Amino acid sequence: MSSVRCHIAISLDGYAAGPNQSMEDPLGEGGERLHTWMFEPTGDADVRARERVLEGLGAFVMGRNMFGPPGSGDWDESWRGWWGEDPPYHAPVFVLTNYPREPLEMDGGTTFHFVTDGIESALEQARAAAGDQDVAIAGGASTVQQYLAAGLLDEMHLHIAPVILGGGERLLENVGDLRLAPVEATGTPAATHIIYRVVR
Amino acid sequence: MSSVRCHIAISLDGYAAGPNQSMEDPLGEGGERLHTWMFEPTGDADVRARERVLEGLGAFVMGRNMFGPPGSGDWDESWRGWWGEDPPYHAPVFVLTNYPREPLEMDGGTTFHFVTDGIESALEQARAAAGDQDVAIAGGASTVQQYLAAGLLDEMHLHIAPVILGGGERLLENVGDLRLAPVEATGTPAATHIIYRVVR
């Protein structure tokens, strides 16, 4: 059976985004430093970790604040995501929101579907869309937290950047009695990559 | 020149000790789960990490709460540490405290020296005692934090246990703009071991 995984970068002090996220600074102050391994890989382990981020995936789930700028309320229909007209997903993406919106078809095979009836429903739709392929919980931190707490994630790929952010959005809180088994650890000067299997 | 290092285990959510540390539970609730890799190693990486904890060290520095039970005030002179008459250090150990006490000589070459004039002084004395060998900042978390914040640590060996404690004493806060460079990452099912060099 296909699995549900997430790939997420955190600082050494546990933050998946820096403080003061905004339209200009969607990852928060210093947040882009979490992703150096991805944009300027320093070794094979970074390259391999990056390949895996999109490998074998048939659908994605993301939180509203990953799709759009911080804030809530009715949709500004002119907002089409952070990624331009050809987002990197090339697959259906289910966006968690409280506000309905028509599906948004982009170039390259990415369609954003807006799901208003909760994380289980979004995952069910993503599984159906993915077929034999895996589903990724793409982020942000609070969305990953919700799936972890609900026991719906099978595998977490954690990329620990050697960076202290000192504040921001923590990944691993409110996740209940989560049990994880490390299955692989590799590293470069830019990050340590650990794959955890969630133990049920 | 000899270097100053620390070896410290943390949970995946960043705690070096669990909540409610006490005489009966010196590592706090669940805190012993951080050290499974050490007491029940599951692979070569655990064994190697454990060997390094005491390797090449000529002196140690520790906080009062690592030497004795939580609490402060004048010494109960009957307290001789957690480790029995032959502590595992086999070298001078400098204990940070506000309360003077005569040196305490134990079996096997361990002598506890009580230092009341601050972390720099303790490190200076430890360096002098260690000669060509390294000095370890043995813990606990707040002592390691102070040395990190003061820029006095050269190397941090972090052992990340696949455990969520949900509360307790965090390691990596109040450490200022700490810059770290990972130099090695290895792992087993029990822990991921990362060696960081502190960048000055």
Largest interface by residue count? A-B, 30 and 30 residues
What is the topology, as strand order, of the major beta sheet of chain A?
A: 5-6-4-3-7-1-8-11-10
Largest sheet data of chain A: 9 strands, mixed
- Give the SSE order of chain A as H and E letters: EEHHEHEEEHEHEEEE
Broad structural category of chain A: alpha/beta
Fill in the CATH topology of chain A: Dihydrofolate Reductase, subunit A
Q: Residue share in helices of chain A?
A: 10-25%
Q: What proportion of the residues of chain A form beta strands (DSSP E)? A: 25-35%
What's the β-strand tally of chain A? 11
**CATH architecture heading of chain A:** 3-Layer(aba) Sandwich
CATH class of chain A: Alpha Beta
Shape verdict of chain A: globular
Total tally of structural domains of chain A? 1
CATH superfamily of chain A: Dihydrofolate Reductase, subunit A
Tally of contiguous helical segments of chain A = 5
Overall average residue pLDDT of chain A: 95
Q: What's the quaternary structure here?
A: homodimer
Q: What is the gyration radius of chain A calculated from CA atoms?
A: 16 Å
Can you describe what's shown?
- The structure is a homodimer of 200-residue chains.
- By secondary structure, the first copy, chain A, is an alpha/beta fold.
- Chain A contains five helices and eleven strands, in the order E-E-H-H-E-H-E-E-E-H-E-H-E-E-E-E.
- In chain A, 20% of the residues lie in helices and 30% in strands.
- The first copy, chain A, has a single domain (4-70, 87-198), classed as 3-Layer(aba) Sandwich (Dihydrofolate Reductase, subunit A).
- In chain A, the strands form two sheets. A nine-stranded mixed β-sheet of chain A has the order 5-6-4-3-7-1-8-11-10, sandwiched between helices. A two-stranded antiparallel sheet of chain A has the order 2-9.
- The model of chain A has no long low-confidence stretch (mean pLDDT 95).
- In chain A, strand 10 and strand 11 form a beta hairpin.
